[in-house]
Design brief:
The complex is a heterodimer.
Chain A lengths: L2 H10 L2 H56 L3 H6 L4 H12 L1 H16 L5 H26 L6 H25 L4 E4 L2 E4 H27 L7 H15 L2 H6 L8 H23 L4 H12 L3 H7 L2 H22 L9 H28 L4 H22 L6 H4 L7 H26 L1 H9 L2
Antiparallel strand pairs in A: 1-2
Helix pairs in contact in A: 1-4, 2-5, 2-6, 2-7, 4-8, 6-7, 6-8, 9-11, 9-14, 11-14, 11-15, 12-13, 14-15, 15-16, 15-18, 18-19
Chain B lengths: L1 H8 L2 H4 L13 H13 E12 L2 E12 L3 E5 L6 H8 L7 E6 L2 E2 L4 H6 L1 E4 L11 H11 L4 H15 L14 H12 L6 E5 L7 H16 L3 E5 L3 H7 L2 E6 L2 E7 L8 E7 L5 H7 L4 E7 L2 E6 L3 H13 L4 E6 L4 H13 L1
Parallel strand pairs in B: 3-8, 3-9, 6-7, 7-8
Antiparallel strand pairs in B: 1-2, 1-4, 4-5, 9-10, 11-13, 11-14, 12-13
Helix pairs in contact in B: 6-7, 7-8, 9-10
Classes of the chains: A mainly alpha, B alpha/beta.
């Protein structure tokens, strides 16, 4: 048996727990039956599955690695002969074994109830697996930043997981359209959601595997991450409904609109990665030293996740621009607004990434991520609201990418800002980066 | 000679090969055979190691070599970089620059290969309190890839050796610090590593447990295991170490044997009842005496002879009419070497 799974079973499923769980569940079911008959009985089973697998299970999955770090056993695991796949499923299935054990009793009760619905049951079980895989992945991402409070990171991973999974579950259970229009195909809603859930589980498990692979010091490139970015971008761009929503961007035809949506999705992923991923000065320094030294293969292993997303975003942005110009009829005017929007989005991204790193380099850890949050809220929410309240809506394109403003106002200010932000980073790097640190060490 | 010098500082992969084609071999085959044997006996080789924390350079160009079968005491003030160095040697943290090879394997290139040859005991032990001793060892044996047919035997050997065979069914959380320490060592050596790194192994132990630990480490060293032990308790290290490495402010400031190797001069000290001019004269006349330092009734010198020659020297001093109070080998304790180095660094 997988040693990691075995160890987790020893810890999670001692005999007294195996007796206690069904005893408590039987009491809950009995109380539910007394309160409202078989309907409440089935409802209690559903609710318990959700609580056990999503709420409690995500907590246990998030703790799977973090308790090892807290208990100082993680280094020993990293030095062991366990492979990343053994570690991934050993931790995922092992740490949550008690919850799955409890869920089996709930599933039996649910199926036995006359109100049991198999589609609902499958949706719940898949959501549980989604939540646990996502919590494990998030906890692995969070510990890369070597945070001070590891327990707090467990809470963050669990909270984010619940915020992602529970609304999705509610939406897919209680607001069920008949079908989904995706790349022109009309797909039954239940089929689409089930396939989506399976894909989500597949990618999150693969993500956790990659993170564990890196932690166990196997050499791992960014191919998996790159494939995920391409998948996510292609998936999002497939929703036909989004084409109507971004119609105001002034793209010349549906194909270019879809390309633009893909570009926007890649930009979104770039931001998500840049905000979520811990930004380590040491790691950044090592990455740049490897890249500048021409050691691309080793450098690739240290590259931040936003980098691959940004590369895809730039490729899609350029393709969008080329297509906007290419599909224009010879006599038609150039859709300057659409072009300015794409260029501005790229410049805003460069500016913000540079400022994120400036803040991290400035604060040398600690308050860096908080400062980024404050900056994003101020730049994209507070200032536009203030301008709008002051009836200065015409200036909003300076702050937020827009297709409707004058192109020079959309592009030029952010171009200058991006240059200034990159300049700030370079200046800061000279103080605290490789050169700065070397100077400090050598005493010059 | 230039080629040889270049090879000496190069990677040991090169050193172990025959001299490079085209190189002028000015040394005899015996030299190469001796040199290669010496290179093979170097189990750990660290070159220009630099390691950074976000706001601090923890290791600044550290270089040293550790021979197979030695026990090195790693000492230095708090924050000197001892734990960081051990973690780098164990391949747990990525280096900023430099190289570490363990058993001729580059730690940065193949950390997992190095892990198979290395055991690490950290200060905080890292045990699963909710498991029993038997479960902990069974997990460790399986996780470290010990074949199922060998596991039970290895576990039994380890617990017998560490004196915890009667605790197999106890919960780890219920063990005393000394027993936990033994369990952690049993876990770290279950896969029979060539190198065992121990970070502050004696911290929190009572005197009896410390004595047991010293005895165990001495026994492991005698069996040929290479140990690197970080500790603040120098007197204890003195019991079992063969070498001492002093780390200060991220640099190695001393790396030396703790005992004079066979064939090297010993430092002797002779004390007279009262000063006499004949003392210098008598000692200078003996060809086995060097590095003489006379201060009144006291003289210190390097002596190349064995204990019989030492007895002969004592006889000749007495026969010269000198009133000898004592003649003894001067032991420089680790504490005195450490204190001297630290004082030297402060000046």
């Amino acid at each position: 048996m997988n040693p990691e799974f075995q160890r987790n079973l020893w810890l999670e499923l001692p005999p007294h727990r195996m007796v206690a769980m069904p005893a408590v569940l039987v009491l809950v079911f009995f109380a539910a039956w007394l309160a409202g008959g078989s309907l409440s009985f089935a409802g209690a089973a559903q609710l318990l599955i959700a609580l056990l697998l999503i709420v409690w299970g995500s907590r246990l999955a998030a703790e799977a690695v973090l308790v090892e770090v807290i208990g100082h056993t993680w280094d020993s695991q990293r030095m062991s002969a366990l492979g990343p796949w053994e570690m991934t499923w050993g931790k995922l299935a092992g740490s949550t074994a008690f919850m799955w054990y409890g869920s089996i009793w709930c599933v039996i009760a649910f199926v036995a109830s006359p109100h049991g619905n198999i589609t609902l049951l499958i949706r719940l079980l898949l959501a549980g697996l989604e939540a646990q895989a996502l919590a494990l992945l998030l906890s692995m991402v969070l510990i890369r930043g070597e945070p001070d409070s590891l327990r707090f990171q467990v809470t963050i991973a669990q909270t984010v997981t619940i915020i992602v999974v529970v609304p999705f579950l509610f939406f897919t259970l209680f607001n069920r359209p008949d079908s989904v229009h995706w790349y022109g195909f009309i797909i039954p809603f239940d089929v689409f959601v089930t396939v989506f859930q399976l894909a989500f589980i597949g990618w999150t498990v693969l993500g956790a595997y990659q993170m564990l692979r890196t932690a166990l010091q196997y050499s791992s490139g960014s191919l998996t991450w790159l494939m995920f970015v391409v998948f996510a971008v292609a998936f999002i761009a497939g929703f036909d409904r989004l084409q109507e929503l971004v119609g105001a961007a002034g793209m010349p035809n549906p194909a270019v609109t879809r390309l633009f949506i893909a570009f926007g999705a890649a930009i979104g992923l770039t931001y998500a990665c840049a905000v979520v991923e811990p930004k380590s000065l040491v790691r950044l320094r090592q990455w740049l030293v490897l890249l500048l030294g021409g050691r691309m293969r080793q450098g690739e292993q240290l590259s931040p996740a936003w980098f691959a997303a940004l590369v895809i975003a730039v490729i899609l942005g350029v393709l969008t621009i080329v297509n906007i110009i290419g599909v224009k009829a010879p006599t038609a005017p150039l859709p300057v607004g659409a072009l300015a929007l794409v260029v501005a989005m790229m410049l805003f991204t460069v500016r913000d990434l540079a400022l994120f790193y400036y803040l991290v380099l400035y604060s040398r850890f600690g308050a860096g991520n908080l400062a980024i949050g404050v900056y994003l809220v101020t730049a994209y929410f507070l200032l536009p609201v203030i301008l709008s309240s002051a009836r200065l809506d015409g200036l909003i394109p300076i702050l937020v990418p827009s297709a409707s403003g004058p192109p020079e106002l959309v592009v030029l200010p952010v171009f200058v800002e991006a240059l200034a932000a990159v300049g700030l980073v370079v200046q800061r790097w000279r103080t605290v980066g490789v050169e700065g640190l070397d100077r400090a060490v050598s005493g010059h | 000679m230039t080629n040889i010098a270049l090879l000496k500082v190069g990677r040991y992969g090169s050193v172990l090969d025959e001299p490079m084609a085209g190189a002028t071999t000015v040394e005899s085959p015996a030299f190469w055979s001796r040199y290669q044997a010496e290179a093979r006996s170097l189990l750990i080789v660290v070159r220009n190691l630099i390691f950074d924390y976000p706001t601090k350079r923890a290791l600044r160009g550290v270089s040293f070599e550790i021979k197979a079968g030695t026990i090195t005491g790693l000492v230095g003030p708090t924050g000197a970089g001892k734990t960081t160095l051990l973690r780098c040697m164990a391949g747990l943290d990525a280096l900023y620059s430099g190289t570490i090879t363990v058993d001729r394997i580059d730690v940065s290139e193949a950390p997992r290969e190095v892990h198979r040859r290395l055991g690490l005991l950290q200060d905080d032990l890292g045990l699963y309190d909710a498991l029993t001793v038997r479960q902990s060892l069974a997990y460790q044996a399986a996780a470290y890839g010990i074949a199922p047919r060998d596991r039970q035997r290895r576990i039994q050997d380890s617990v017998n050796r560490l004196g915890i065979a009667d605790r197999l069914n106890d919960k780890v959380g219920a063990l005393s610090r000394g027993l936990r320490q033994r369990l952690a060592i049993a876990q770290a050596m279950l896969h029979r590593p060539k190198v065992l790194l121990l970070d502050e192994p004696a911290s929190g132990l009572d005197p009896e447990a410390r004595a047991n630990l010293s005895e165990l480490l001495r026994a492991l060293g005698a069996e040929g295991m290479t140990l690197v032990v970080s500790s603040h308790i120098l007197a204890e290290l003195e019991d079992y170490t063969t070498h001492m490495m002093i780390l200060r402010n991220g640099r190695v400031v001393e790396h030396c044997p703790t005992r004079a190797p066979v064939g090297r001069p010993r430092r002797l000290r002779v004390a007279l009842v009262q000063p006499s001019s004949g003392l210098r004269q008598c000692l200078t006349a003996d060809p086995q005496v060097g590095g003489l330092d006379v201060d009144g009734a006291l003289a210190r010198f390097d002596f190349t002879g064995d204990t019989f020659a030492q007895a002969q020297l004592l006889r000749s001093l007495i026969q010269s009419g000198l009133q000898v109070a004592t003649l003894q080998e001067e032991q420089r304790s680790m504490q005195s070497v450490y204190s001297e180095k630290m004082r030297g660094m402060k000046r």
